[in-house]
Structures are given as structure tokens and as C-alpha cells.
Amino acid sequence: MVHQHGDEHHIPNEHKRHRPGAWLPADHRVQHEWLGRQVEHVDKHGAKDLIPVLQEFKELIEGNTRIYMYFTEMWEEVPRRAPYDKDPTGKRQIRNYKHMLNMLNHVFTKAPEWTDAAAGVGMVGVPMVAIFDYAMGTPSGHAAFLDPDVNKMLKKVLNEWGKYLKSPESAHVLGHDSEGWFGDSATKDIMSVANAPLKTSHKFEDMFVCDPQAKHYGYKSWDDFFTRPLREGARPVASSEDDSIIANACESKVYNVERDCKLRDRFWIKGQPYSVLDMLGHDALAHKFSGATIYQAFLSALSYHRWHTPVSGKIVRAFVRDGTYFSEPLFEAGIDAAGQKDGDIDVKSISDAQGYLTALATRAVIFIEADNKDIGLMAFIGVGMDEVSTCEITVKEGDHIKKGDELGMFHFGGSSHCLLFRKGVKVDGFPDVGRADNVPVRSQVAVVKSG
């Protein structure tokens, strides 16, 4: 995993969580400590009038019997056992949907901050996931976050927060203090992740387009910082004139490589097989990818978040398919030592369940007709996870692009991506699953052989 500042300290097993991409800290106590401070603030100062979009959310919950049941029961279904029953201070945190809305009302007044807490471990900041965390893993929470009406409402909520994250007011977290993104711990971690793939020793200003003499390094908002572009030359294009070399589309860590994928499969089961037709949004071109080879990798919380084309070619189709925002799979119960079901839900967090998310989450789908005839039609999918409310495509259908050119970007939040190659394309040489560092964007990710 990507280590955040302080993750190297000893974490007791009962508090340790595997967090691909480090969107939440490995030490679960840190998330609880952060959320506990937010709860304490809300409880101490009392509920404020909800902002209009959260008032609309409240009216949806209370005005729809089905959704009211989900949002009432999900908090009651959180297991009454460790580690779900208590935070490190011994207090339950989010108590019901009204408390949830008051918490959202509070966190929406500020941009995600870098938090130095609990033995120095930084919480990168996905506040909505921290609030929904346990409820997402309950039967009612699972149903709620798959519900189309709930997801339409969540899109409105996230879009409203996105407006704030693009405003100058959101830049207040880009300071040099312990909760600022240019503080010592945050900068150290960002550059550790950025330098690791190529074993470089760049400073922030060497790697990213910015003005170190300006306030907030010249970034006008939180989103401006999050989508920061790379400096030319920081990530060279692999074999720019050789169309048999596939370039990496995102600065990312390998999640999976799977071949001969079915057009339709049971992506919600424990193995999370890919379901190509669902991944590609049932587009007419999806049927050409029966038996596809799929490469998937996820983006670190501290990484570069723009996408680049893996091949030179023509943009055939490009669209965003709306989907879920906080759905995670519930797999079958575990088996105890006596061979009986233990009653626990086997919950995979959003970042652990990326195969599942390729078919359900909001995602950008781009079909590219490669100049190399041995590749032909291929597809890129940018998968929004957690708080990602915008997958922005910056190319349009009919454009001819050169390998390494920008395709688009993620706006705030956890994210994953896939490359799909049709059956018969001889593509190989993918990076090993489990490799420690990110694969650099625009570097070689695979090779296609002729014939």
C-alpha cells in the first residue's frame, strides 16, 4: 500500500485496515479520532440550518417510505461488536440519519484537510466515506447506496460540494501548517509517492506546474491543487514513435490483470469477475469486447489524477455513465471453527472492491481506434470512487490523439481505471500485481505483438 506519514508505527491488529491507495489511514483509530472531533464540534455547537441541498436530501429521506426505512435501519444494523461498536474513546459516533445530515452540513463548510493525528498518521480526507463507513456495510446501507433515487440525490450533494471545492474559499487548506497540504508531513508524503516510481528526488515545484513564490503555490482552489498538471518532462512518454508499446494511462498501482473476460458475469460475488457489458455502460461497441483482456490499476490518494491516452489513435466514443457513489459489495457470511456461518457480513470497502465498482460506479468510458492495426479498437474506463462526483473527459469524439496526450481527469476522491483490449490482441508484459510503487503515468505498461 501507499504509506502515509506515520503508518510505519506499530498498529495493533484490531485497529489495522488494508486501505489500497491510502484514501483512509491504515490505523483505523485515526479515522475514528478525526470523525470524533467532527462529532464533538457538531454536538457542542448544536445543529445549524441545513444547506439547501442537504435539506432536499432530508426531504427525500422523510418523504419516501423505502428510503426512510433504509436510512433509519442502516444505523441500527451496524454490528454491536468490536471494532464497529465503539471508537477508541468508547463512544458511538454517527447515531441516525439526522445526525448524519448535521455532520455533512459541518464538513461541507471546509475543504479536505491534511490531518496529523494519532502517532503522526495523516488522514488524507474523504469525509463522506468516514461518515458513511460502517453504515455502507449493512444490509440496509447496501440497498440504500444502490438505490437510483438515492444516487441521484448524492450526485446533487457531491456537485454542490464540488462547487465549493472549486471556489477560492476552499484554498484555505493549502497552507504550511500541520493541517495544510504544504505542511511538512503532507509534502513529504506527496513527494515520496511521486518520486518512488522512477527513484527521483524532485521537489514539489520540480514535478508539478505551480508558482512556489505565490500564495498556495498559485493554486486558486482545492480542486485546482488536486488536478495539478505535471511539468513537461517529469513523466516521459514511453517509446513515443513505437506504436507497439502501450503507455500507462494513470499514475497508479496494479490491481488486476484478467484475460478472456465475459460480456456478462456476476461481478457482485466474492471473486468480483469483470462484466464487460456492464463496465462499458451497455454501449453498442461493448459487444466487440467479449473475451477481452482487462488491466486495472488504482490511484493513490497522493498521486497525480489526470489521464493520458495509452495509444495514438482516434476517439470513437467518449461519455460519462452515471452510477453509484458509495456502494460496496456484501459477500456471504464467514464460516466459524465449527463449520457454521458466523453471522458476520464479509464487507469489502470501496477501494478493496474495485472489480465490483467497474460495473456500478460513476465512470468515464472512452473508445479509441488505435493507429496500430494489431490493437484496433480498445477502451479506457476511468472509475470514480468514494467522493468522486466528476469524471471529466477533455477530448471529444473524432479527435486524433498522440500517445501520452491528456484524456481527462478525476476531481477529488478515490479512483481506479481500466484498459480493455479485444480478444485476439496479443498484449502482454503488464506490471506485476502487488508491485510496491505506482507505475508512472505515460511509462510502458504493456507490449502488443503483431499477427
From TrEMBL:
Keywords from the named record: Decarboxylase, Lyase
Skewed-composition ranges (Basic and acidic residues): 1-14
Gene Ontology cellular-component terms listed: mitochondrion
InterPro entries: PS_Dcarbxylase (IPR003817), PsiD-like (IPR022237)
Domain L-tryptophan decarboxylase PsiD-like, first and last residues per copy: 52-189
Listed name of the protein: Phophatidylserine decarboxylase-domain-containing protein
Biological process terms in GO annotation: phosphatidylethanolamine biosynthetic process
Location of the region described as Disordered in the Swiss-Prot/TrEMBL record: 1-21
GO function terms (MF aspect): phosphatidylserine decarboxylase activity
